[in-house]
Amino acid sequence: MRRLMYEARAQLASPVRNPRMATVIGRLLGLAFLVCFGTGLYSHFLQQPLPWMTFPTRPAGLYQVTQGTHIVAGIACFPLLLAKLYVVFPQLFQYPPVTSFANFLERASIALFVGASLVEITIGLLNTYQWYPFPFPFKQVHFALAFVIIGSLAVHIGVKLPLISANWRAAPVPAPEERHPVDTGNVETPTDAHAENEPSAAEGLPRTRGLTGRVLSYIDRTPELPARTSRRGFLTTVALSVAAVVGLTAGQTFAPLDGVNLFGPRKKGVGQQGVPVNRTSAQAKVSTTALAADWVLTLAVGGTERSFSRAELVALPQTDVELPIACVEGWSQMASWRGVRLRDLVDLAGGSPDADLRLISLEQRGGFKQTEMGSEYVRDSLTLVALELNGETLDLEHGYPARMIAPGRPGVLQTKWLSRIEAIKA
């Protein structure tokens, strides 16, 4: 078994399979996951804030940037994770499989990290297309796996820290006489049972002293080894892969890349009134109630209730703002909105702009038929009960007869088809 494992690792030997390359790819992958983790936590707590939390309302496009970055970093994890697995693949053939408790922690943590990461980024990508073929709730599992990934990554880094530290900086340029192991084909068994088959300084390559039969001779590095991947070629391939998967999808968030947005599920300017739509009126089952002649928006914010018809809302002083719709799936679209400032409407109804509000939609089912809005948004002059979009009466698909629009909020919290606004009692 030891000989078979040794032979497998010798066959997999490559200039890119070494601790330095593992460190280079590993720190890029670690950075991508940390960016995903931080921006993901921000998005999560925007949607499910703890009682003491408040959030910045400026810059108005903050969530557009954070969530767009979250999706871009997550997509970049695909080629980076595959590159990392390619570099460390020979370590799967280590014999014995576990040599110490520290080695056990290392292998267990990396197995957990890889497994959780593959599930996390896969379901995250599927969520951008709003396709859920898996039998578990996306939001809860995605949130929990983020902590599993970061925890297992921390354990792995802790165990491998000496090796990472030794290879963090670029290694010296190898001397011309540096050699590589090549199998000569003589078959016998190793004379030493364990120590002489431990990994060498080049991770993934076994030691060679003490082998009496299957001898690995050393020859100069030459171009006659076409199967070997050069370091420069490998890094170029990884860089181009990351640039391709990011560049061909990031246009759904970042306008300069819109022209090459080939794979993003949303395209800027495509949709009713030039704005994409996530949840339609048919999905929300509001077509009848939203178009009803007796629709009113009821405010229960000052101890009493006051209702406004759409005509009454239109007759109030109107405000124009430029705000993006920025969705958790990573796409965003800047748009022009016109409507009544929420703080003015709350004041007119006898409420306080320092109160947190509950926004209730005509939608009867769905996780966001009711949303909550902190007082920091209520007080902001950019927060509107919107009645128009891009110079036209709000389309039914965008929330007619009235919807909420506020700076720095996820699209799922910009409640469409508003029916009622009420103060949340402390």
Structure write-up:
- By secondary structure, the protein is of the alpha+beta class.
- It has 2 domains: 2-171 and 229-250, Fumarate Reductase Cytochrome B subunit; 274-423, Oxidoreductase, molybdopterin-binding domain (Sulfite Oxidase, Chain A, domain 2), CATH 3.90.420.10.
- Helix content is 39%, strand content 15%.
- It contains 11 helices and 12 strands.
- It has helices at 2-11, 19-47, 62-88, 101-128, 138-166, 231-247, 281-284, 287-290, 310-315, 342-348, 375-379, and strands at residues 179-183, 216-220, 296-300, 305-309, 319-326, 332-341, 357-361, 370-373, 384-389, 392-393, 403-405, 418-423.
- Strands 4-3-12-7-8 form a 5-stranded mixed beta sheet. Strands 5, 6, 9, 10 and 11 form a 5-stranded antiparallel beta sheet that branches. Strands 1-2 form a two-stranded antiparallel sheet.
- Helix 3 runs antiparallel to helix 6 (231-247).
- The longest helix is centred in the first third of the chain and has 29 residues, at 19-47.
- The N and C termini lie far apart (68 Å).
In terms of structural class, how would the helical and strand content be classed?
alpha+beta
**Major β-sheet, in short?**
5 strands, mixed
Shape verdict: elongated
Computed CA radius of gyration, to the nearest angstrom: 29 Å
Task: Determine and state the CATH class of the largest domain.
Answer: Mainly Alpha
CATH architecture field of the largest domain: Up-down Bundle
* Count of alpha/pi helices: 11
- Strand % is 15-25%
Helix content: 25-40%
> What is the string of SSEs from the N terminus onward?
HHHHHEEHHHEEHEEHEEHEEEE
Number of strands: 12
Enter the CATH topology name of the largest domain.
Fumarate Reductase Cytochrome B subunit
Strand order in the largest sheet: 4-3-12-7-8
Q: How many domains make up the coordinates?
A: 2
Assembly context of the chains: single chain
Distance between the termini: 68 Å
Average per-residue pLDDT, rounded, comes to 85
Please mark out the parts with pLDDT under 50 across 5 or more consecutive residues, or reply none.
175-227
